[in-house]
Here is the input.
Amino acid sequence: MALAANDAADRVSQLIVLTERLTTLIAAQALAFEKRRPRDAAVDMDETSRLANLYRHESGRVQRDPTLIAGAPDEQRARLVRATEAFDAVLARQGRALEASKTVTEGLVKAIAEEVAAQRSAGGSYGPGATPSAGANSATAITLNKRA
Here is the structure.
C-alpha cells in the first residue's frame, strides 16, 4: 500500500497526517503501558500496525528518492520534520514504557516461580525423626512464553 499523491506538496501533507496519527496512537499505547494497562494498548493495534507499515514504506521511498517531496513548500517540509521529531520522541517514550513493563512482568514471574519452589520444597512429614516425602525436593519445570 502506498500514498496516492498528486504532487510533492500533496505527498508531504499526507505524510504529515500519517505521522501525526501514528504519533497519537503510539502515545496512547505508551500511556497505557505507563498506567500498567497493557490491554488498553491493544485497542488500536490493527490500525497502528497498518499505519506503521505504510509509514515505513513511505519513509523508505522518500529516503531513496528525495525528489518525491523536494517540490513542497519549505514551511510544509519543516512541519513534516517537526511531526517526525515528535514521532521519534513518542517512540522513545513507548520503548521506555515497554521496557518498564517487561521488567515488572519478569519480576512477577520470578517471584511466583520462587514461591512455587519454596512451597514444593517444604517438608511433607510430621513428628520427631520424620523424613521428607520423596517428591518434596523434586525439580519442577516452569514453562515461560517469551512472546507474552
Notes: Residues 8-118 form one domain. The helical segments are 8-34, 38-41, 45-64, 67-70, 74-121.
